[in-house]
UniProtKB/TrEMBL annotation:
One of its GO terms (biological process) is organic phosphonate metabolic process. It comes from Roseateles asaccharophilus. Gene3D superfamilies: Bacterial phosphonate metabolism protein PhnH. This is Alpha-D-ribose 1-methylphosphonate 5-triphosphate synthase subunit PhnH. It comes from the Bacteria. Pfam families: PhnH.
Length: 212
């Protein structure tokens, strides 16, 4: 993005959390719930949603997640489908995060579901046996998330027995890649799916199988 475009975006900067500390804490609790209970769709706090500002094309759940997780010590890679001067200016001003050009350098990746292809995901840092905690987290915009009677079966920590659900947006090749990555645990990527004001966590510890 050119400096002129970003300067213009900065001049029309959207607001962020109305109550930064309180709202970030509330959203962080939702994110913790999403990651500790995979397969359960979580909603943003109503009070936060009603007062939070964001770039026009950024889903509320993604905006709240960025404001909560990013800071001056984090590096973010933006997928082309969501990248814009307005978003870059908003992130730099409200989060202070560094925007990186290479996925390999990112702590977080923000992308649309259609971009979640194996060739890209394999470039993100999946951690190592010595430091699995250094892996990246993918924040993905999806079309919809529907629990119960879905086309996937999720099992693992935080799931009493199993969850069936459908996530619309990611292509079959994404799910095939994710199932193959289960053999690499404890290394791997963590995912947060977002649609509108809803969030869904997919930690690397969750096992996914297709429903027959």
């Amino acid at each position: 993005m050119s400096a002129r475009l970003e300067s213009a975006a900065l001049a029309e900067l959207a607001p962020a959390f109305a109550e930064p500390v309180h709202d970030a804490q509330a959203v962080f609790r939702v994110l913790l719930e999403a990651m500790s209970r995979p397969g359960r769709v979580q909603a943003l706090p109503a009070a936060c949603l009603s007062t939070m500002g964001r770039p026009q094309d950024l889903a509320p759940a993604l905006a709240a997640t960025l404001l909560t997780l990013l800071d001056a010590d984090t590096k973010l890679w933006l997928g082309e489908s969501l990248d814009s001067p307005a978003l870059r200016a908003w992130i730099r001003f409200h989060c202070g995060a560094s925007l990186v050009a290479q996925p390999e350098l990112a702590d977080f990746a923000l992308l649309g579901a259609q971009e979640a292809r194996p060739a890209l995901l394999q470039r993100l840092n999946a951690g190592s046996d010595v430091a699995p905690q250094d892996s990246a987290t993918v924040l993905m915009l999806v079309d919809a998330m529907a629990p119960a009677q879905g086309n996937q079966r999720w099992r693992g920590p935080g799931i009493e027995r199993e969850h069936e659900l459908t996530i619309l947006g990611p292509q079959p090749e994404f799910w095939a890649w994710r199932r193959a990555q289960q053999a690499s645990f404890p290394c791997g990527l963590d995912f947060v799916f977002a649609a509108g004001d809803r969030l869904l966590g997919l930690p690397r510890s969750t096992l996914i199988a297709e429903v027959d």
